[in-house]
Amino acid sequence: MANDIAAHHGHLPGDVAAEAIAGHLGRFWDPRMRTRLYAFVDAGADGLDPLVVAAVKLMR
Prior knowledge:
Blueprint: H1 2-8, H2 14-28, H3 31-42, H4 50-59
Helix pairs in contact: 2-4
């Protein structure tokens, strides 16, 4: 689902897209979902869009 959000914001410049993704995840994702996303990024983020990884870094 996070990759779909990144695809939706992919037309934006990288830093703007990462901020938009972070905002979306912060507003609409349940804290449990964000916790699992953080763990997935910590485990290597295999298959995760780099914009999502950048957004997670901003969220932390």
